[in-house]
Design goal:
Strand content: 25-35%
Helix content: 25-40%
Organism: Alkalimonas mucilaginosa
Order of helices and strands: EEEEEHHEEHEEHHHHHEEEEE
Number of helices: 8
CATH architecture of the largest domain: Roll
Structural class: alpha+beta
Strand order of the largest sheet: 12-13-11-10-14
Keywords: Signal
Number of strands: 14
Largest sheet: 5 strands, antiparallel
Protein name: Transglutaminase domain-containing protein
Low-confidence stretches: 9-22, 205-212
């Protein structure tokens, strides 16, 4: 039996978003006549004014990962049932009978045929087709099924693939960062990204028992909507680091109802870090609204940040 859970403008129009004083971030969005949209951010950091801006083609923001959807167990079941019926029609075996063993679920199945051997072969063949239909559905909506903890399968957003497919669209942001920091270190760049992303409004997660994509926004949608949850911000930060520092190792760490980023960089004595697969990763949490520096994670999550306990995926 498959047991899975869900781990879930007209030209020159100006839009100003002023956040509470604690966040101290201002965003000016400006629609340009060349079809680009200008994003200009301003905030206070240690008493100093910080400015950061970039342009994105409006068409890119509208088309960015448009096939991304929330996972629907009902739709996944429908695709599996369709695959089963189509394959049964192809087999054209009059003595073949297939029944679902669980009410309302297409898998697992009981197969009756002329011989026990035939039944086993048919069951394996049909199950493979149904599972492939399910996998095709997951792939089409940017989801994946992962093993976390012994014996537990979860369906979740495919953060790794979203990062890979966002690289091209985020090039203008990376180029703006490159111009702002022509000479910098991994720590300095990571800290700047944290200072910026933690101030972008945090969108509280909906229940992840209902949808693995609840609250998640792909990178350009996060920028366009000016909000995001923990894994949305982690993926945006990781994508920009990948563009600017392609040799730096990155992992996403999955904590209870939370996600943080691990960065393969030189650590300092005060850093919270984790050793995974023989490499040390300095931890970073871009979620906000708490302004946590690089190497600092909220105390309530530290219990779960242990090798062999924490679930993670390389990015």
């Amino acid at each position: 039996m498959i047991r899975t859970s869900i781990f879930t403008l007209s030209c020159w129009l100006l839009l100003w978003s002023a956040l509470p004083a604690a966040a101290s971030l201002q965003l000016q969005r400006q629609q340009l006549t060349d079809g680009n949209q200008l994003f200009s951010y301003r905030w206070q950091q240690n008493g100093q004014r910080v400015d950061f801006s970039f342009q994105l083609p409006e068409q890119n923001t509208q088309q960015h990962l448009r096939s991304f959807r929330r996972y629907s167990p009902q739709l996944a079941d429908t695709y599996m049932r369709q695959a089963l019926q189509q394959e049964l029609a192809k087999l054209n075996a009059p003595m073949l009978r297939v029944d679902a063993l669980s009410a309302g679920n297409p898998l697992p199945i009981r197969v009756t045929a002329q011989t026990t051997q035939d039944a086993q072969q048919y069951r394996q063949h049909l199950t493979q087709h149904m599972l492939q239909a399910r996998q095709d559905y997951l792939t089409s909506i940017y989801h994946t099924e992962l093993s976390i903890n012994p014996g537990r399968q979860v369906i979740m957003v495919d953060h790794q693939r979203i990062l890979a497919d966002s690289l091209q669209d985020l090039l203008p942001v990376a180029e703006a960062l490159q111009q702002k920091f022509p000479y910098t270190t991994t720590r300095e760049l990571s800290q700047f990204l944290l200072d910026w992303l933690q101030r972008i409004p945090y969108q509280r997660l909906d229940s992840r028992s209902n949808s693995s994509a609840a609250g998640f926004l792909p990178p350009l949608q996060l920028l366009q909507q000016h909000r995001g949850d923990c894994d949305s911000k982690v993926v945006l930060m990781a994508t920009l680091l990948r563009l600017l520092l392609p040799d730096v190792s990155l992992v996403i760490l999955y904590l209870p109802n939370h996600a943080v980023l691990g960065i393969g960089m030189q650590s300092q004595s005060s850093d919270q870090q984790l050793r995974l697969d023989g490499q040390n990763f300095v931890l970073a949490d871009p979620t906000g609204p708490a302004l946590q520096p690089i190497g600092e994670i909220a105390e309530r999550y530290q219990l779960y940040l242990q090798p062999g306990i924490v679930n993670y995926r390389k990015l």
